[in-house]
Design goal:
Low-confidence stretches: none
Helix content: over 70%
Distance between the termini: 26 Å
Largest sheet: none
Oligomer: single chain
Strand content: under 5%
Amino acid sequence: MSRKIAREQAFKILVAIDVGNNTIEEASEIVIGSLKDDDQKSFVFREVNGVLENLSSIDKMINKYSEDWTVNRMASTDRNILRLAVYEILNCPDIPVSVTINEAVEIAKKYGDENSYKFINGLLGAIANDCPPK
């Protein structure tokens, strides 16, 4: 499993937690079952735990840059794609910002509505431009 797929799995876990009120363990079982690759499993859980541990500051950042849309008003798919990407932009110096934004846009094209990827790309671009380098 590539990081791209692992990132998508992390997104699905976040949605299962957000919408289904599942625990991390329940959401993980639903989404990835018995993933064998320890490196990929570690990446998925680093992402999910990182988002959850920094949720308040991540949501504040998203609210600051999204005009007329608070996190709670966004579709759960968009909200969790943004949360994952903002976490990476702010906390993962090993992941280039351009990769983070590109992957978020690709997930939005796959799981969001027809305008999600544009909204996500614009918002993440603004955040990335204003955030100091990692």
